[in-house]
Specification:
Fumarylacetoacetate hydrolase, domain 2; seven-stranded mixed beta sheet; globular
Length: about 270
């Protein structure tokens, strides 16, 4: 398996906004191969002047694992040039160059410390400085969104952009056990041009977005080829609803109930 060849093909696909065959067409292609390709993409991004500022978690809904040939969530890097703060006025996105774009409402965490590799969601939340509702814009280089989990890891995690909404700062007075419970119980709605486009909940995110963060801590603790999770990183925990397709002219708004996070809106 030539990881450089796979990485270059996907880089060319992104550069030219042209679809390409998924690497999993080779039945010998593994998740380890996919992360090796992701490491090449990380190194290429850095050499091009991009700085990793966090990670997005994918396939946090276990009902998708069988069709994706996975038994775990996966992750990919997000960068200084792909992460935007809506409270700083970044509320529009240009879809030129996006391939089959969709949008996912997600719970996002800002880290103040390394996430411990215990797998415990309360431990994980202890490493969190703030929580926000936000969006991930995803772009798929594979025809008709047909791929396996290894292809998503290889294809930049399907990541195009993160939009982070208003931050709910955690303080010493917060009850982390109660917050974990609340995150698992939140309900979510996403609107496309004021029309309800999807509903979901924190439960579809590995049972709880804080559990997804804890799972990422375990995964990263066992991947020495990548830097450990660190203070300052932004972690997007996985979609709360089925992701609607988007196109230029759309206005997307998401809201949650059950935890005090402000709604978020982005225009395309």
């Amino acid at each position: 398996m030539n990881h450089t060849t796979v990485a270059n093909a996907l880089l060319l696909s992104r550069q030219n906004a042209t679809l390409c065959p998924p690497p999993s067409e080779n039945p010998a292609y593994t998740l380890a191969d996919a992360y090796a390709v992701a490491k090449i993409h990380l190194d290429t991004a850095r050499s091009g002047g991009m700085t990793p500022v966090g990670r997005k978690i994918g396939f946090t809904n276990p009902t998708a694992w069988a069709s994706m040939l996975l038994n775990t969530p996966v992750w990919g890097y997000v960068y200084d040039k792909t992460v935007f703060d809506t409270t700083a006025g970044h509320t529009t996105h240009d879809l030129r160059g996006a391939m089959q774009p969709k949008i996912e409402p997600e719970i996002m965490f800002g880290l103040k410390a390394t996430v411990p590799g215990t797998g415990d969601p309360v431990d994980a939340l202890g490493a969190v400085a703030w929580i926000a509702l936000g969006f991930e814009v995803v772009s798929c280089p594979y025809p008709d969104w047909k791929f396996k989990g290894v292809d998503a890891v290889s294809g930049f995690g399907l990541h195009r952009a993160l939009y982070v909404g208003p931050k709910r700062i955690l303080t010493a007075d917060d009850d982390l056990v109660a917050i974990v419970a609340a995150l698992g119980a939140v309900t979510a709605r996403i609107y496309k041009n004021t029309v309800l486009a999807g509903e979901g909940s924190g439960k579809i995110v590995l049972g709880n977005p804080a559990k997804a963060l804890a799972a990422l801590g375990v995964i990263c603790a066992n991947q020495p080829q990548f830097a450990p999770l660190a203070a300052g990183e932004i972690i997007s925990s996985g979609t709360l609803t089925p992701p609607p397709t988007i196109e230029a002219g759309d206005v997307i708004r998401a809201e949650v109930a059950g935890f005090d996070l402000s709604p978020v809106q982005v225009s395309f």
